[in-house]
Prior knowledge:
The complex is a heterodimer of chains A (442) and B (165).
Chain A: E1 12-15, E2 20-24, H1 26-29, H2 31-42, E3 47-51, E4 60-66, E5 69-75, E6 81-85, E7 100-102, E8 105-107, E9 114-116, E10 121-123, E11 146-150, E12 153-157, H3 165-169, H4 173-180, E13 187-189, E14 194-198, H5 202-209, H6 215-232, H7 239-245, E15 251-256, E16 259-264, H8 281-298, H9 300-308, E17 310-315, E18 319-323, E19 327-336, E20 339-349, H10 354-367, H11 375-391, E21 396-398, E22 413-414, H12 420-433
Antiparallel strand pairs in A: 1-2, 2-21, 3-12, 4-5, 4-7, 5-6, 8-9, 9-10, 11-12, 13-20, 14-20, 15-16, 15-22, 16-17, 17-18, 18-19, 19-20
Chain B: H1 7-22, H2 26-30, E1 33-41, E2 61-64, H3 65-75, E3 88-102, E4 105-118, E5 121-135, E6 141-150
Parallel strand pairs in B: 1-6
Antiparallel strand pairs in B: 1-2, 3-4, 4-5, 5-6
Amino acid sequence: MSSVITPPRKLVDIDSANHRFRINRDAYRSAEIFQKEKQMIFSKCWLYVGHASEIPNKGDYVARTVGGGDLIFMRGRSGEAGAFFNSCTHRGTRVCREKRGNTKTFSCPYHGWVYNTEGKLVSMNAKNFAENINADGALNLRKVPRLEEYRGFFFVNYNPAAISLVDFLAGSTEFLDSMCDQTAAELVVLPGEHSYSINANFKYLCENSYDGYHLLPVHVSYLEFLDDRLKAAGDQGAVNFIANLFTKQGRGRGLGNGHAALESWVPTGRPVASWIPPWGPEVKKEIDAKRAWLAEQFGKERADFISDVQKNLVIFPNLVINDNVGMIIRTIEPTSPNTMRVNSWALGPTDESDALRAIRLDNFVSFLGPSGFGSADDIEMLELCQRGIEHSPVEWNELSKGMNGAEDSRVEICGPDDEGHMRAYWAQWDAMMRGAETLEAR
Amino acid sequence: MSNEYTRDQIEEFLYHEAELIDDWRLPEWSELYTDDAEYDVTSLDSDDPINSSSKNSLFLLADDKERLSSRAKRLMKKTAHAEFPHSKVRHIISNVRLGTEAGGEIKVKANFVVYRTKEDKTSQYMGQMHYVLIPHESGGFRIRRKRCILDLNSLADQGRLTIIL
């Protein structure tokens, strides 16, 4: 008897000769593919869990959902950061019920088992258990297999055999460095967060986060707002600037392992170190001084790159780091094939003036977040896309713009309004879904 | 010391503001604000939303007069995609309490529920509004400050906050 084997469906169709790159729409809507993504991608990639500045003191913790895992990210009494599954080893109860705080222990509310900040079970609130019942430590809070840090950014990995975080990050470290190097002091996550849901597949937001092609059609109303502001302050405005220059400067860049970035010029002002007239003279001195310091530290070319270039980075599979209107960390948690949960935070250096800090935050909320003049319209687009693909018989999404015959899409370089950085993402996605790439040490 | 203004007068003004928003008369709505006005919605994870500041923490929304006027102008455009076609909006305002009147300012707090219906989906935004009002020569008031504190931990149900609260 022979069994019938279904040949694997092609989900990413790369036709370099004809400059076509297409994604089968099932990749955005199928429950089966959603399950497979968990296994092939979210169980193998490094996933962002939190920033060092969120747990500065011993006993500090935050509770966070990461790749489906309900985790406690905390700084133990030893001073080391740890990441644990938020579940009592007795019956499974969620032991940490607050979003953040400082504690010496976590007590399970059900039967009173107590864990210390290293996750060790220190009390079972009863005497008649076998004395050595936890000799092997299996009743301690379960640690996430891997937790590593790159310059304050902590990631977890559910695969014990995964390559190191820094190897995984590949070329994206250049972009993390160009944020961390903006100050000789510390970068910290500022208080406050945006947490919202979108009714679309999570990959739609990944694509959108560095999509230069959509800027004018989707964000014209933001650009008009910016235009009014700049012109009122005697500047040339934004709409003409974008129309004339956006497609001529900058680029999309694949950075390896599915990571990619958009480098562009948009006159939003950058708290490091690109001043615009509406910010007023008060902070100009500070921003100019920062720019001079950068040039002194890193040379003019890198200082200009750090100061002027808007950088939208997507770290595969679900982390967005924007260094544009400000510095933004955005995590995208898939919650079903057609829904996602988004969390975002603002970063800032500890050595800036109160005035510049206020401008940084103001710049963030003017464009970004569920009430921003930009993000809200992006969200609408993603939901319109999802709605369309749920019923339409069209099988493929096109990501062919600017395809230039690169041998490996994962390191392709393209124009700022092309789709090469999205191809970098999808080429990695495809390799991992087929099992051709596992991100394990060989 | 008794207050110069009655709850009736204040409520009438708050209902007027709500009506302008619900009727999508947003440019008129923005005229209710003083030139030094602030309209903001605090972070949903703030430990102290009443006293927090958008100058050192991330708010959902923190408009000065310029941006709230721009918000009103933008929302009337077809290219403000998130609100096209316009959602149906309804404000319910209650529990209006008058605070102190000092230095020509009147502090007011009120509870609110705002319903937003876009296509078949209805979302609710509920919470408390903290106003600083100043009397206006027309006999009504102008808003110097309006802070909305939502009784929500996230926008997981609502997804976005694109209408005016």
